Amino acid sequence: MTDSRIYLVGMPGSGKTTLGRQLATHLHLPFIDLDHYIERKEGKSVRKIFEKTGESWFRKTEALALRQATEENEQAVIATGGGTPCFEGNMDFINRHGLSVYLQVPVNEILSRMKAEGIAVRPLLAGKTDEQLYQFFSETLTSRQQFYTKAVLTYASLNPTAAEIFHLVDNWRLKKV
């Protein structure tokens, strides 16, 4: 396994894109947001892809995009989609091709962040009440936990910073040597 690629995994709203961008800058590495990568390749938003082709087709497209982005970048920080690790053997692929970091954030915090961001932009969340959203996030986290916890590193925090993630990765690298 190599740690020249760092994959951030976790629920939507856990900070993968924000922290990934900052971490990549700090490490002087390219940053790839997998959802944006897919949108560029497909010429439409993730939401439109979901609406037109359904989740199953999207997950296959996402797995292909993950493999392409990995192949194209020997070194990078890659922010995966929230469901990416849970389909098509992606978590095992991630762990074979880089260092995985699970950003573990409580459901209440995720819900708060997602509401601030705007729920309507997320295909699986649009139109749900607060109670339905809480139930959805709780159930989704429960079902995805088995994949997220396969990550090499887990960072649990309400407000993680890129510097904290950098130190976590750096300490792991030092122990590995």
TrEMBL record:
Subcellular location: Cytoplasm
Cofactor(s) the protein needs: Mg(2+)
Pathway connected to this protein: Metabolic intermediate biosynthesis; chorismate biosynthesis; chorismate from D-erythrose 4-phosphate and phosphoenolpyruvate: step 5/7
Cleaved signal peptide residues: none
GO BP: amino acid biosynthetic process; aromatic amino acid family biosynthetic process; chorismate biosynthetic process
InterPro entries attached to this UniProt entry: P-loop_NTPase (IPR027417), Shikimate/glucono_kinase (IPR031322), Shikimate_kinase/TSH1 (IPR000623)
Keywords (A to Z) from UniProt: Amino-acid biosynthesis, Aromatic amino acid biosynthesis, ATP-binding, Cytoplasm, Kinase, Magnesium, Metal-binding, Nucleotide-binding, Transferase
Enzymatic reactions: shikimate + ATP = 3-phosphoshikimate + ADP + H(+)
Cofactor-binding details, from the entry: Binds 1 Mg(2+) ion per subunit.
Binding-site list for substrate: 35, 59, 82, 144
Binding site for Mg(2+): 17
Annotated function: Catalyzes the specific phosphorylation of the 3-hydroxyl group of shikimic acid using ATP as a cosubstrate.
Subunit structure: Monomer.
PANTHER family assigned to the protein according to its UniProt record, in alphabetical order: SHIKIMATE KINASE, SHIKIMATE KINASE 1, CHLOROPLASTIC
Similarity field: Belongs to the shikimate kinase family.
The protein's name: Shikimate kinase
Native source species: Adhaeribacter arboris
